[in-house]
Amino acid sequence: MEYNEQAIRKAMRMAQTPAGQELIQKLSQGGGQELRQAMEKAAAGDMTEASRAMSALLQDPQIKKLLEQMGGK
Question: Domain count of the chain?
Fold first, then answer.
């Protein structure tokens, strides 16, 4: 449980950075349908479909750049 709390705190801190704010805005464009679909699939335990939904988002060069700025790969 502590790991989840730490991960949530870290994600919240990252979301407050300029890159995090820009990433949130970018992911929300178009209603955030791709992100919502990926989250729903992951919550349902279908990680294959969640990965497919996320891969479309990760093809966007701006999203890739923002994730790299935030320390993601």
Answer: 1
